[in-house]
Write a structure and sequence with these properties.
The protein is an alpha+beta fold. It is about 25% helix and about 20% strand.
Length: about 290
Amino acid sequence: MRRWAAVLAGALMLALAGCGELPQGVDGDLTDGWHTPPAALQFRPTAGCHADLAETSSIDDYDPVSCDDPHLAETFAVADLGEVSSAAREARAFQECSSRAAGFVGGDWRTGWLLLQPVLPSDSAWSGGARWVRCDLAETAPSDGTLVRRSGSVRDGLKGAGKLKMTCADAAVEGDQVTGLRTMPCAAKHTSEFAGLFVSKRPTAAAVTSAEMEKGCNAAIAKFTGIPNDNTIKNRVGWLGFPPDKDSWRQGDHAIRCFLWLNGEKMTGSYRDAGTRKLKIHYVYR
């Protein structure tokens, strides 16, 4: 702009210094032939896949890959955040992404082997006016919760008999800890079955108590199996509860995933709507 100003000043000085007659083809209007420069475009990511999972992004580190190639994360939506304080930014971003995920994967993403990752603009990009959130999903391994480097999209992964759905599994349990989970068809013999989830109001994952998980998972299992959620439920079924990790909890995922578990007994077929005839009182607590 300073160079443009200098050119204009020089042109004015020349006009004033002349004899007052304009050269042929010059009308004296210094700006009517200039085009307005285009507005600066703000970087905004698009749908695609990424080699790694990220919490923030900018044009400098934006490097999408083909979803046919191995990758960790897939962008399924980009939403507008608008003006929001830094303290509320992460929670708003999670809400925006969570509300859009079901339409992409074909069901509540929390009922699948999936991790939701909102990706916010970097601090410099936010200062420059970026107000978007990039919504990414990643597949998690049932065995230990680690991220899966996959090829292909997670689109419709929870629809019908989608491979990403939480269903039946063999659980390895030591004491009160689940040390491993191996998924399998419900028609095969297994020791646990996903029954549903409940949302905790605790501020951190570490603050969730065993008593709270028992109460929440018993309610989810009672609804799933069609048994009464009363003082006999602990004599009919057991439960396994899986809270999100601390980072997911901080971002806004407070849903505990609950599995029906019969103290290691083998089950065959789904126990959905099994009722009290199948889930009899057979545990005695003294």
